[in-house]
Each structure stands twice: as structure tokens, then as C-alpha cells.
Design goal:
The structure is a homotetramer. Chain A is α/β, with parallel strands linked by helices and about 400 residues long. In chain A, strands 3-2-1-4-5 form a five-stranded parallel sheet, with helices on both faces. In chain A, strands 10-9-8-13-14 form a five-stranded antiparallel sheet. Chain A has 13 helices and 14 strands. Chains A and B meet through helix 5, strand 11, strand 12, helix 9 and helix 10 of A and helix 5, strand 11, strand 12, helix 9 and helix 10 of B.
């Protein structure tokens, strides 16, 4: 790889990415463009601008954007149409944010004539893979710089030294090692590393930042109604809201009731297992509600096929293949299945649990006429079941006859 | 089908199966053998013997058996190795009991020289399919009698009339229609019909019989440790217990903490959707714990394959194909995956929720050495990630080059 | 089911469907509308009109249509995009024609105010299921009449008697039993029954009607080039042709070179196995060519996913679920994968075999630059492979470490 | 990686691996153990011994083994039970040989106290991945040396120079570049590179080495009968033979009749597409025969599940994951399905094509009694089909009712 001339850096404004910024300038002598996005991580973005200016970035090279609506509308919502859960449990909160960041990095690279992008993910995790696969999928000629895999700043001490030498301001609480590492966006907060590294040991209470402890949640349940259109949540208690606002409100409900905590050991794409604490308050409610509205509006054949495809779909997102032909194929199938997933779900929220307790829809496939224990006025002829069973059993009977013959 | 001469009836001792018993005698003039099983439904079995005697069954034709251990060991446990959930949520509590009942019906038919079996499932549900597919798979020549699909006792009034005419005792509370219908065994209690038929309306509190309301559960969480061997739960808080005892104890924990309630609309195999209230207290804890122990002992490749196979496996059980070559194939794959699923999981039980908070195993694949944020002493070379990503990206880059060429 | 008043019959003009026509008139006293379609079965349609008139059908109740283009464009081509083969081998020639016939039956029923449709498929086969599932999927209230399941004309003698009593003309060669039964359309000819019923015995030579014996095919190979656009064959040796014409020409190539014979035992949806002789001359060439063009234009990830979905897709079509939400989902995924399946394939045809020998495309993903044994000018860095392998191996090494620890 | 002390080299005796041998000695100064295996590639092994001795290898460090029986019995046969074809067509002839070679490399390393293994695969292909994944899966601490990824002998001239400088004898025809590269074993011969690099251009006739041209094959077809036991071929024309002999004989039949040629563009695991010419004479016959015996002995449900799993199974083998938990899981399922795949298949071999024309088995599930067009004496009640269809259609009708309601 020849040396980059101009690089777009995914820049949070924090100490680590500030060090990267400076390192890119000193190591490669290249012009740096910073990109700072609001994905709902709950941090002010303007300080990032000031810090970038202070580190010598030209004003026209500073990009700060609110991507919350795009994030939920074009990434989170399509993923929830699939009820995606990695390894049965993880709602992919970090995974789903990476492709959007990469997409903007590439677009800004094209707009500013940059030939490279850079990110602050380490060489042991999944995020490097997600950033880079997305980047290459969108621009096959882009250079990608992953300082954590390249530099020799391999200890906290060396990083702090570098920062000091380069006049990068260091917040007091950043001098030492953090007791664990955090990633957050509108969908979730994940925590991992250090105090969490022994999977036998309970996560300390202070790790949870996004939800109240279920023990501290209200003693009374709360009921909400979520309206769906074509598989996406569009209203809450009868109020239409946009995608980001929907997730924001659900997050607040989830936070308050202690919903969406997950303590998980998962298999990383790079090959080792890691332990994470995930808080996905709104997403956990959304998953339950989406399953609820599907249950009355979606055909059994379609649902079972979708359930069967889901693990591969979730794996693709986890592994960083959002921009891939096979994810596109699965998305086409999934979206097709959501055409009539429209209606309303009633949920009970209480002490860590969100549970569907009612659902209704103009597109319901539930037929009280057919299912009733009462007289169904001929809607269903019970005698049909005899033939249905007989022919479903035929191959099993032929197998049993063979067994008998062989005895 | 020629008339049956001797029929083995799945007999609960209740009003409905007593009517069936008498109907078989009068309609077909055939000898009846009764089979009453304890699957943990929580009812005394001896009254069934007395009632059968009273209805003219010969003592040697009355079979009463405790199948709880066999049920959990050979049916529930293999199924939980798969983390089976039908339509994403249902733990298959009714489905998994049917094949065992059919197996004993067929064995008793062979032992007593009966040429037919009979069951009390209706023509609208899944259970008739499950009973009959299992029966035919085990004996291709057996006759199956399903009175509900055949007779003209199509209303409560006609049933009561028939009972009265035939001196079948009728408990007071059985004269009218039950407000909903119940099925129970050691794994779960399901309720459906009547007051539950409108899926938009919350299930009344009195429907729940197996678990306390989460609101009434203890205000303090409780922690338990479940030990696993090759995928099956074998000890609780350090005490080894057999399969049935394990589930019994987990049920008690679940009951107390209000765990395992599910309000579901599901797609029946016979084609319509139905709404059920399921309570699976111990099973819900078991699923969470099993996922927990798998998370550190099971390889990623194996787990993802198993997750992908699960929906079909669950569908097979739901649809009644327990005794089928394809379920055997999936079971062989699943069992293979469980060879090292051995270790211990720590769970927190609180107000309706069971959550893994720790797990450890001699067979753990979790390597703190590899995953650590600290210096890993060379266990993992971060530079390897660059090549890993580059080659995973190659096909995506070739796609992007094509797109570029076509623009 | 109440008696039908007006019924649309899938009418071939042959003896069997003429008997059905008359039986519908006499048994139900209902008005009959006949529908005769040209799907490329190679028979004149006008005699069917005359025969229908002779049997008392009103001229306005006689529908005769050439559906060949629609058949190939909307049914055969979408199916070939999937490379669909049932049980690994069968190209679904009969299965794919049924939904189109049902669709027109239902449309004609709606146009003529008929409340029922009727078909001539027997109660043992798959076709009854395909006709009826499609009919019900398109009109939930339609009545379906399947005379072969209802009437008592259960022997050849009774049928001939009925025909004679009702003045239905009987061709000489139809008096006795045919030595086997045939179904044909533009995609294939299938033969089954009677002389073919012992699967151990070779099919007699005279069964094959659509292709020359490979031994009698030309001694010189012939080469053809097939052009594709978005997964569909659109030109042959440089000449653009429409869908039906394409298959017609490929059939002629296949016939001449003895291509597309298949002697198969297959599992029917109704539960038993049957043996069929299939001749699919053009389709066999088309499958090979489609695989060929996909091989250079389709991404590996997309192709592997499609291959994995194919068996279920083929099963859906075989079982009669063309008009189902899950087939729609799979089709959406498959069609998505075909966007760039555009280019040309060169095939060698010789003595029963069609084999791809060359392929090229503007959308090719094959990169000589990357794959070359020669110097690749840096397109691919062989050192990347080391990291790629190392990280793919990591989980396997962790497994091996566990094994070692346990020894 | 610290320097290796003793390395086991997969050694063919040819020029390239002789250069590697010498390079290992000079580059690493390490002791070399050679391993030369007969996998049916059709070359004498003793010359490899002499050459190794000549290059200074101690006699006790030279391992020469005939692995043909183990290769077919433990690798080829299990794979054929799955009907494995990569990307729909490739019979995995190279892929399946690699894990066995690696297994022996690792075993010899353990026996000789070697700390490393080495192979002669390049950095662009799949074989490096297969060798190394298998090695790491069997010994997590082994060092793997892949000289082609490391050295600077990047052109034919440099290689020849190195050979000359090191007194490695060079056969005359090895001085120049070969027009294509070949790999062979008992299952297949593959050819790729150079004259084959343009996938639009037909492979020259001289590339095919393992089969006669179909045009030159006998003008008369030949019939053979292959006997199977539990999914493996065990006899030919009534003669029992061992696994290697079976494949050897089938190869001779295939060679003679020009069977098993494949011209393929495939997606490599390392990310690019490559074009190969494969000749798999015996394997092509075996696949057809295995499908044939399965067709009458295997249940539909089992077969469809197996077909659905096959693409992933084939991909695992292609990608080098033979020794992985997920391959073990799939193998367990596949082997389970083969318990009754026992019987005989009759095939017609003619001019490039092997076609099943008859099959029989004591374990046949084909029931002439059920399928017959003649009177079946009540084995099958055609009226059952009505109920079967009605209930299969119910969900489709409920969908259609919804559509109607919405219009």
C-alpha cells in the first residue's frame, strides 16, 4: 500500500481518536478530514469540532452529522424486520451502526478527494472487520488505516506519552485505564473488557448505564401500544413518530423498567470468544412487539422460512457483511414478508420484562370463525383432518412397514 | 377401515375421555383398554382406575404409569439441547408429550393384542396429528379412532345427555362449558379457547395457574446454579438430581418468581392460527441456562449451524414428526454438538425474568489470554487481522470494481 | 360443499376429460365451461372446440388459449433462475405448468360467473394438489371438483361404458389401457405407470418420445451460444428470441442430440414414491447454460445462499405452493441475485450431454489479473493469506487446545 | 513465530517440492522429514525416496505411504453419502485429499518430534487453507511453513537458478513453464492456469488426461451394476471390492466412456474466481448411482433435509473445514440418513454420460401396491387426498380472504 495523502478519520473527539488524528499527521504526513456522527450515543458533538480545530484540522475538513434518523430508518428497522438475534440473544446494536459510519466515510472521501479512511477499532475485535468490509464494498480502491494494528503505542503509558508530547489535552479520568470499554448508539450500549473479562463473575452493578436495575424499576406495570406498518414501528400509544423518535421513546420506556439487559459470551468473527454486557432497552421492546404483530399478520409458511433464514442474516450483520449480495438477497425475502405486517401490539412492561398481551390488525390472518371451540358454521370440516393425517403419515407408515419386514 | 375389536384409549379419568370410553363400547362394541399416564400434569391417577373399573373395564386392561422420568430424559432433554422454540417463542410443552403417549399406546396395543388406539383430541387441533403420526410411525397397521372427528356429540348438551344416559358421573363444575381449555404436564400448562379467543384482549388473570403473577413474586432476586453434562441439566446448586426432579425443582423456582408466561398467537399445522397462554416455568429457566453453558463450551461454527437448524427441528416437533427420519437426522447433529456442553451456569431469578449472570466449565473455549485488552503475550497477532479482512473483502471489492466499470 | 352451478373444466379434448365433462353435466346438472390451453404439449387445440360443441358446450363457454409465452416467461424462467431440481435431478416440468392452468381456470370462473373448477387429475398424484392449492390461493371461495376422487368409474371398462352410453366418441387406441401415462408441455414430457411401475426394470425404448436415443444422435458434436439477461435466456447464436421461442429452439437442439432423459424414482407429496421417465431436452441445456453464466457473473456469497435455498424452493413448486408467501419470498431473493447474470455461454451438445465449454460477460467477476499464475502486478498480496488462515483457524486451535487439556 | 527446528514436508519428489526441501534446509537450517503419499495420483513413489536421500534426508526421516484405501474409505465415501457438489457441479476431488495429508503430516510430526509442517501450495489458492486449517485443528501448537508465501523465488527463472545452485536435478520438460498446472488423486485430476486462464476459451483437448474424448468412446453403451451398503458402494457387477478398488474400477469405466469432464469457473475461499478443468470419471458414476439407490431406500423427509444441508457441507469441505465441529455435526446427520441405503443400481454408460436405468433393494420404500394405476386393493384411499389438500390449502385461503377483504 502506497502512503495515503488524505484520510477521512472516524473521529469521536475523545482521547483515543485524537491520538490517532495526530498520529496520522505525524506518521503519514497526510491531510486529515474528521467525521463525527451522532448515532444517538448521547454525547455532544460540538466539542469534537473544537478539538479538531485545535489539532489543526481545517474547518472545511470537519464533518459533523446527525445520522439518527437514517440509522434507525435504513439500518435498525430493516434488521428488526428479521427479528435478528446473533447466537440466539444479541440484538446486534454495535454491528448495525458500523456500515452506516463506513458509508459516510467513503462518501466524504469521495467528496473531499481523500484516498484513505481510518478508524479507531482494535485488531482483536469485530469492528475493524465491519468498518473495513463495508469500506471496501463501497470503494474497492480505498486505503484503510487501522492504527491500532500498526502503531507501537501498545500500552496506556505509551499512549499518554504520545498525547503529552503532541499537546493533546487529556481529561483527568482518561489517564488511567478505564475499568471496561463502552460503545453506545441509539440502539444499545455495550460494555466489555477488564472487569468483565472473567465470564464466571457477575458484572458489577456500575457497568449498567442505560437502564435502571429491575429492582429499582416501578412497582406497577405500564402498558403501551405500538403501531406497525409493513414491519416497522410507526406509532406509540396512537402517536405517529419518525424512526429515531420511536426508538428514543422506546429507550426511555425500557430504561425506566429495567428492560433489555444481556450478559453474553459470544463468538467473534476473528475467532475468539468474548464477554459483553449489552443494554438494548428500546430494541428489546421492539423485538417483542414485532414478533407480536407478525403473529397475527404473517402466514405460517412465510414466518417459518424467515425464522430459518434469520441466523444467517444475523451472522452476516455481525460479521460485517451488511453491504453484500447475500444480505441484499435475504433482505429482499424479508421485506417481501412484511407487506402486511401492519397493526397494533399491546405490551406490558414490568421489572425487566416486556411481554405482548394483545394484538390486532386489519390484516389479521387469525380467524376466530375457524379456530373457535364453538360451532363454526361449517368454516372448517373436522373430517378433512383424517385425510390430512393419513397422507402425512403415509411415508412414515411405509418406513414402519420396512422395519417390520426386516425384523 | 374395518371395525376395531380391541382399542387402547388414552384415558385421563375425566368426563370427556369417560364419554369416549363408553362411546367406543357402544359404537364399536369393542373391548377397551385404558392407559393413564403421569407426565407431571399434577393430578392423581388412582381415581382413573376406579372410574375405569366402574365403566366396566377389566382390571388387566387398566394401565396406569408414571412416565415423568422417561418424559424428561428422552423427550424434553433432547429437545432442549436444540434450544427449540416454535415461531421464535413457544417451548413446545404440549407437542413434546404426545409422541411418548402414542409410543405407550402402541406398546400396550401390542402387549394386549389390540388392533386400535383412540385419543380425545379434537379435529381442529395439532394434537390429533401428533398422536396419529406417532402411532402410524410405530405401527403401520394400527387403526386410530378419533371420536371427536366421528361422532355427533357436537355440543355440550349432547355430551351431557350421552353421559347421563350412560351413567357416567358428572362433576358439578363439568356441566357447563369451561371458560377455557387446559393441557398440563411437567414441562408446561397451556390454556386456550373461549375467553382467550380474541387475541386483542388480555388474558384474564385467572387463566394463569402455574406461576404467580410477577407483581406478587418476591421482591428480592434469587440466584441459582445449574450444572450441565453433555447438554443436559444434571445438578442444581451443586445437588445432582435426575431428569424429572430437575424439571420439578426448576418449575418450583419458576412458579415462585413468575417466570415463563407466554401469550402467543401461533400457526397450527392444520392451517389456522390460534391463541394460547403458555406457562413453562422450569423450561424457561432451562433454556436460558442451556444457552448460557453453550456460550462458553460450544464452537461458533457448531452453534451457528445448530441455530440455523433449530426452526425446522421445532417445526417437526410441533407438527408431530418426532418419530421421523429427518428428526432423527437433526437429533444426531444436535447431540453431536453437545459432547462438551458441560459446566455450570449462574442465573438471577426475579419478577418474571431468568437471566444468566455467570458461567464456567472445564471445557470452556473462552480464552482470557486471547481476548484480553491487556498484553496477551503473543497469543494473538493483531496483524493477522489485516490479511483476514483483505481476503474476506476481496469478492466485495471485485463486485465494487464491476459496479464502477458499469457506471 | 353445496352443488356447483357452473364449473370451468380444464379440458384437453381427449377421452378422459370428455367423460369428465359429461359426468359433470349428468352428476351435478351444472353448466360447463371448457378451458383448453396450448402450453406446448404439441397437440392441435381446434379439435377440442369441436368436441366441446358436440358435447353441448355453448360457444361462449369454450375458452382456447395459447399460453406458451406466458408459461415460459412467468413460470419456467423464474424457476430456472433458481436452478431448481427436485430431489437433485427433476426439472419440475409438470409441476410448473399447473399453477398457470389454475390461474386461468380461476380467472375464467370469475369472468363467466362460475362457482367451481374441475380437473382430471387422479387422487394418487401430485397434480390434484397443485391444481387445487393454486385455485384456493387465488379464490378462497371456489369449489373444486376432482371427479377421479369422487366417481365410481374406477376401471377402464366402466369408463368406456360411460362414454358409450353418453355418445362420447372413442378413438380406437383409447379402448384398451395405455401402456403408460403421458403429460407434456413446452418444458418436458413425463411418462409413468403400467410398464414403468417396476423401478428395477429399464424403461422400454418406446417410452421416450421427445428425444432421439443418444445412440442415434449425430456423431459430430454441435456448439451453440446462449445469451442471458438478468438470469433469463434471451438469444441463441446471437439471435434474440422471445421466451417460448427460446425453449422451442433449445428443445429441438436437445431432441436431436438425445439430451435431457431422466429415469427417476421420486417422493410424491401425497406420501408414496413413484417412478417416472422425464424428457426435458431444452430445459436440460438451459440449466447447464444458466449455471455457466452464473459462474462468472454471480458473487460466491450470493451463489452459495441460492444453492442452499434451492431445495426448499423446488419442493414448494413440486408440492404445489407456487402461489404462496414463502415462494414469493424465495423468488424475491433469487431475482435479486440475478441482476447481473447477463452474458453468453458456449455449450457443446453431443450424444445426450450438454456441457459448458466457454462463458463471457461484461459483468464478469472473474479477474484474470487476480487469479493468474503469472505476475499479478500487486493485485493480490499472497501474504494476506497467512492472516486469513490464522484467524479462520483460531477457533479450531482453541478447540484443539481444549482437547489437549482434557487428554 | 520462532524458527522451526524440524519440519515435516509434504513431498512429491518433483522439482518444486525438492526446491522447497532445499530451501527449508538453507533458509531455516532445520532438519527435514519428507512425507510422500500414494493417494492414487498415478506416480511411482520410490523415486521420491531416492531423491530425498540424494538431497540429504536421513533414511529414518523418509515416510512413504499408500493411503488409497484410507482416502476412499474415510474421506471420499463419507463425502459421497452427502452427494456433495460445490457450486452445484464440482465433486471436490482436490479438497477432500488435503485433510488426510495434513493428518498424516501432523501424526508424523508427533512421531518424529517435529515442531513444524510445510507444504507446496501457493498463496492464491484454496489448498494452503485446507492444509493449514486441518493442521491447526489437529495440533494447535504446530508451526506451518508455506514457502510460496514467504520466499523470493517468484519467477520460473529464479526457481531454476536456485535448483541449479543447489544441485537439484531438473527434468528437461520442467525447465520451461508448464502450460497448465495439474493435481491428481484417485478421485480426480484437476487442471488450471496458463492456457486455461481465459474462461471464454475452450480448454484444449490435450488438457484432458484422465478420460477419453466422448467422441472416441465406444459406440456401444455398457451397463454396470453397483451394490451399496449403508450408502457406500461395495460391489460392482456382483463382485465385492474394497473402497479403493471400487473407485479404481469405476475410474476405468469412466475413463473408457469419457465420463466425468467438467469445465468450471468457481469461487475460491480466498476471494477470487478461478477456472478449472476437472476429470472425475469414477466419482461421476458414483454420484449418479448413489442418487439412484437413495431414490428407493431413503425417506422423502430425510432426503429433502439432506439436499438442503448439502451446499453448506460441500462449502465446508471446499473451504478446508473437514476437521471442524460443524462438519462433524452434518456428517452425523448424513450418516444417520444412510442406515438403509443398501441395494443395487443399474447404470448405462455411454459417450460421456452415466445414467441410472434400474434400482432395487430389500429396503425399498417404493410400494407398487400404493402407486399403481391398477386397483390397489385399498392400500390407498383416494378420498384422503381431499382432506389433505383442504388443510394444506387453509392458510392459503385465509390469505386470499384477507386480500379480498382489502380490495
Amino acid at each position: 500500500m502506497s502512503a495515503p495523502k488524505k484520510v477521512v478519520l472516524a473521529y469521536s473527539g475523545g482521547l483515543d481518536t485524537s491520538i490517532i488524528l495526530k498520529w496520522l499527521q505525524t506518521e503519514y504526513g497526510c491531510e486529515v478530514v474528521t467525521f463525527t456522527a451522532d448515532l444517538g450515543q448521547g454525547e455532544e458533538l460540538e466539542p469534537a469540532r473544537e478539538k479538531a480545530l485545535m489539532l489543526g484540522i481545517k474547518p472545511e475538513n470537519i464533518y459533523i452529522e446527525d445520522l439518527r434518523e437514517e440509522f434507525v430508518r435504513d439500518y435498525v428497522n430493516p434488521m428488526f424486520r428479521a427479528n435478528a438475534q446473533y447466537e440466539g440473544l444479541y440484538l446486534l446494536g454495535t454491528s448495525i451502526a458500523r456500515p452506516l459510519i463506513s458509508k459516510r466515510l467513503i462518501e466524504i472521501a469521495e467528496a473531499t478527494g481523500a484516498d484513505a479512511v481510518a478508524h479507531g477499532a482494535t485488531g482483536k475485535g469485530n469492528d475493524q472487520v465491519r468498518f473495513e468490509l463495508a469500506a471496501y464494498a463501497l470503494n474497492p480502491d480505498i486505503k484503510v488505516i487501522a492504527p491500532w494494528r500498526e502503531w507501537d503505542l501498545t500500552s496506556r503509558t505509551k499512549l499518554i506519552d504520545f498525547a503529552e508530547k503532541n499537546q493533546i489535552p487529556i481529561a483527568k479520568d482518561k489517564r488511567g485505564e478505564a475499568p471496561f470499554s463502552v460503545d453506545a448508539n441509539l440502539l444499545h450500549t455495550s460494555s466489555e473488557g477488564k472487569v468483565l473479562e472473567d465470564p464466571a463473575v457477575d458484572a458489577p452493578d456500575y457497568v449498567y448505564q442505560r437502564t435502571v436495575h429491575p429492582e429499582d424499576a416501578p412497582n406497577e406495570p405500564e402498558y403501551i401500544e405500538i403501531g406497525f406498518e409493513k414491519g416497522d414501528a410507526v406509532s406509540i400509544n396512537g402517536q405517529a413518530v419518525n424512526a429515531a423518535e420511536m426508538l428514543t421513546q422506546l429507550n426511555e420506556y425500557g430504561r425506566k423498567h429495567g428492560i433489555g439487559r444481556l450478559d453474553l459470551v459470544e463468538g467473534r468473527f476473528v475467532g475468539m470468544k468474548s464477554r459483553g454486557i449489552y443494554e438494548t432497552p428500546g430494541g428489546t421492546i421492539l423485538l417483542e412487539a414485532h414478533r407480536g404483530i407478525e403473529s397475527i399478520t404473517m402466514d405460517r409458511g412465510a414466518m417459518h422460512l424467515k425464522d430459518q433464514l434469520m441466523p444467517q442474516y444475523a451472522e452476516l450483520i455481525y460479521n460485517g457483511f451488511w453491504f453484500s449480495p447475500e444480505r441484499d438477497m435475504l433482505q429482499a425475502a424479508i421485506d417481501k414478508s412484511q407487506e402486511y405486517v401492519t397493526g397494533t401490539v399491546r405490551l406490558k412492561l414490568y421489572k425487566g420484562l416486556a411481554r405482548t398481551v394483545g394484538r390486532w390488525s386489519d390484516y389479521s390472518l387469525y380467524s376466530e370463525e375457524h379456530v373457535t371451540f364453538e360451532d363454526d358454521a361449517g368454516a372448517y370440516d373436522q373430517k378433512d383432518a383424517a385425510g390430512f393425517i393419513k397422507l402425512n403419515a403415509l411415508r412414515l407408515r411405509l418406513l414402519a412397514m420396512r422395519d417390520k419386514r426386516q425384523r
